[in-house]
Amino acid sequence: MLKIKDLQASIEDKEILRGINLEIKPGEVHAIMGPNGSGKSTLASVLAGREEYAVTGGGVDYDGKDLLEMSPEERAAEGIFLAFQYPVEIPGVTTINFLKTAVNEIRKYRGEEPLDAARFLKLVKEKAKLVNINDSLLKRALNEGFSGGEKKRNEIFQMAVLEPKLAILDETDSGLDIDALRIVSEGVNKLRSPERATIVVTHYQRLLDYIVPDFVHVLYKGRIVKSGPKELAQELERKGYDWIKAEVEEAV
Amino acid sequence: MNETIDLKRVLLEEFDRQERALNGAAGSAFFANRKNALADFDRLGFPTAKHEEWKYSNVRNLIAVPYHFNAPHQVTPADIEALAIPNLEGNILYFVNGRYEAALSVIVSPSDQLFIRTLDEALKQEPELVGAYFNKLAKNAEEAFTALNTSFAEHGVFIHVPDGRVVEKPVILRFITDARGGEVGAQPRNVIAVGKNAQVKIAEAFRSIGEAASFTNIVTEIHVGENAHVEYYKVQNESDQAYHIGTTQVRMLEASHFYSATATINGGFIRNNLNIEIDGEHCDAYMYGVYCPDGRQHIDNHTLADHRKPNSVSNELYKGVLRDKSVGVFNGKVFVRQDAQKTNAYQSCKNVVLSPDARMNTKPQLEIFADDVKCSHGTTTGQLDEEALFYMRSRGIPRAEAMGLLMFAFCEDVVSQIRIEPIREYLEGLIAEKLGSVIS
What we know:
The structure holds 2 protein chains of 2 kinds. By secondary structure, chain A is α/β, with parallel strands linked by helices. Chain A has 10 helices and 12 strands. In chain A, the strands form 3 sheets. Chain A has a 6-stranded mixed β-sheet, with helices on both faces. Chain A has a 4-stranded antiparallel β-sheet with strand order 2-1-4-5, with helices on one face. Chain B is of the alpha/beta class. In chain B, 23% of the residues lie in helices and 38% in strands. In chain B, a hairpin with a 2-residue loop joins β2 and β3. In chain B, α2 packs antiparallel against α6 (144-151). Classes of the chains: A alpha/beta, B alpha/beta. The interface between A and B is medium-sized, with 31 and 24 residues.
């Protein structure tokens, strides 16, 4: 589904990704871990099409298409979803209107008829239940005045409505207490399916107790320096990142 | 048009012609008002860019057109149907090229709630009542366009809401300029007197049809009686060839409530003056405004909250989205006179400028002579939030649509304050269409 090959990217001439290689198949959950500043969020941003980043080398193949050639909205319409680390507050646009616009723009891209109000509301009701999000929240301006937990839950709710093929969760656990973390994780788990792949970007192993990955990759200085099964996350939790850093420095 | 038009001379001559035609009626008190105002206009002349109040709004092009005032028109009932605001019910009065069109208009409120006549008709029926309110607030001696309007005061509407009456249905004044047959001018003069404990909602809505230039020079005087509640909306959707100078002069008495919104969707060159004298204690004055010029449209809003008595509140929010080579002007004056202790005055003007060729000139102007007051003001001019745009695009909304949605939301902050629902919906539709927002 996704083949990242020697991906290099920089921001304001500062090199952040220095050759990422990663292959993800449908149904898999990959965790990307690493110390602060290792490039985790940059990888998520580049995949979603954030324009501040310049791709300086390598490529990304998504279902046989050149991902890097696509605009952010095309990527979304092709089934990529980024759950933001810091969801944006948009005064004056309700979550429900925002999502209706998004759903129908994506349908338009795919050559499908727009959903009418009744069918859209039915979809929203069904998905709201899935992530346990309150109706009144959806009628409020998008993320405006939402608590940290509400914002993250709203991200997962949007993901549920848009039903992506590839979901990228960028530090979805940051700022969440254990209850909020559990609710958000349950939402993500309910959305796991054999067709859907997920990339979970996180600094802490805590989230991976709930969203259990198939693979764990450790990012350091813009490269994946270690990959392993889910147990690798527990090892990192126990030992921290220093031993990985030492291993890398030794190899150099 | 190669020859230079001297609009001032044309108007002075036109006044002379009208005066001669009046014969005996030229001796009335009403006409004396007009004649005095003409002298003011003659003395002041049209303002130039050297005039501080007209620094950013040059009327040079406006006065270079040979307008035909009160010109005949070809507006048909089918045209009116096309111009109608959907679902709007109430007292709807049509003025075409300045003249009242009784056949197109409908008055539904009972006469004990609402006395509403054209100004000339009211003058015939209730000269004393009109005399008590007409030209009492207009600043002819200082403002050339107001003086000009007063000199030709005849068309427009006189509204009186007696003490204690609540007018349930809104009063909608539709001003249509039909410029299909050439350049036209109109100078409506509205006088609105709302009695003690009375209540009314009024809207002035402007439209133009046709490709030729049009000029509207309107003055509305609003007397808000003790403990009265007045809502006043101005809706402008005119052509790029339309010039509009509008002055709304308000006086509020004790414990009254004045709530206004000015929405400018389209127009070539627009100057709105909204001046509120808060001449009583415990008053609330609200001023909302929204404008979204594109092309070479020029939209200027001058407002004044003049606090003359203690313990009142004024609250102002104007928002604009500027594109292409458009120009916006906001000048917000707040005067707090020495007597006006415990005044709360808030002012805010926020703008999004989306093109390097568009320009927004903002000038808050606070003059405070009392020492125990709370006043705040702020103006911002910026771009759309790139992070918000990326967020929307990452959900599949194309950039242009995302921009439309954000611009619409920005304006909606003001539009949502409009409390006549069909007008609010009408404006939301116009704004969404103009800004390319796909939201339903």
